[in-house]
Amino acid sequence: MDPLTNLFANLITTMDILTIGFIGLFFLMLGYKPPWWSKKQILSASSGCQIPGPPSLPILGTRWTFSWIGGYSLNKVHLFYRDMFRKYGPIIKEEALWNIPVISIVGRSDIEKVLKSSGKYPIRPPTEAIAYYRRSRPERYASTGLVNEQGETWAHLRANLTKDITSPHTISTFLPQVDDMSKDLCSLIRHFRRDNDKIPQIELLTRRLGLEAMCTLVLGRRMGFLLPEGETDIARRLRIAVHHHFLSCRDTYYGLPLWKLFHTPSYSHLIESEEGIYNLALELVATADNATKKSIIFDSILNAEIDEREKTAAIVDFIASGIHTLGNTLVFLLSLISKRKDVQEEIANDENSEYVKACIKESFRLLPTANCLARVIEKDLELSGHSLKAGSVVVCQTGLACRDPNNFPNPDEFLPERWIGEEKAKTLANSTFLLLPFGCGKRQCPGRRFIEQSLPVILKELVQNFIISYDKENIDISFEFIMAPMGPVQMAFEDRSY
To answer: Is 445 marked as binding a ligand?
Structure first.
């Protein structure tokens, strides 16, 4: 960071601190509460009062920890939780606005207890800034969307929007196209390779794959984004808009809630990225042809018994969702196998893909793109010796739990072998309610099945074409509301000879 940028960042942080008193008074006068937080839940919030955690300020809670005073930047939120568990034990308490406790847990039995306790309509705390923005645009959005809605509204959307995208039969019909995309990705790598076999920014190519894959899935046709000159201006701008969207979601969620008073830079960026994604995705949809009209998923959304605005929003959200999710997951996976040439040989010769799938599961364990799950518990629970009332917000830190030696021997080592042979049964038993890169239960990511079935095809094609290497010992990770590789990520792809 250059001195001028650093000075500006410190100035903004100082201004934030100086406004704490004003903000507290303002919210005290308004009596603001999150729209998803009922009076009953507010009354039960004191249940976390005895749980250890970082010191809390009046009204604004513990958000000060993500500042130069607290020592943690927003792109290292995952390190904050790692350090807090080491300091305070398996259960910790933060405090959000109005000192409402947010409880994080890392113990396997606690996580299982929370996730098993979910009822008919599991309550997932929404991303408030997105929900607020979408409510302000009723001409575009009939609700806050599948991710942020709750109760019967959420259940209605889920039933009407995800039936086909989660169907094994539907997804299997796309696998031949995934195979073609994998071959195109190999050609793209050869095109952009330098003399030393290195790709300077492999994440840019994997995100192009993510966009191509989601457009193929939703629109039912190839878009050509994997051709050497195939990243159109629309595709590039959409990729950038999605990246900015994740960052602005993170900043509005974990930063001081100043956006509720005025349009802060982070909230302005969120609005800009939301509108950019919406408009750019619609431009892609506008190119629909006869193939699109025959797409199972596109057709099922158009014929769903929901508001027309919901249909448009769902198509936009589905297209945007996989760009970075699939792209980042593939970069993480490649970084892990790059250290094990024996693993790559095994993948290249794996006829039934059992070993390939084991590599992917191990990648999900070590480097999940979604490293935690949040729930509002619906009944009283005892977690690590502490009694929590119904209505408490609990965050299950599954990513950290997957690095616990009590759950997985040699937890920091990439060992696909633990998912096959004699070790498989024990590993599967320990991974229940922990290995959850796509969420859990009814609120899991609708694209889970597509990614799980596509990744083996993509990985095998890449390894059968290239010997992959990566100079760094471990890939640098950035928290961008999902886990992301801190680019640029330079990898070498040497042609495999047979």
So the answer is: yes
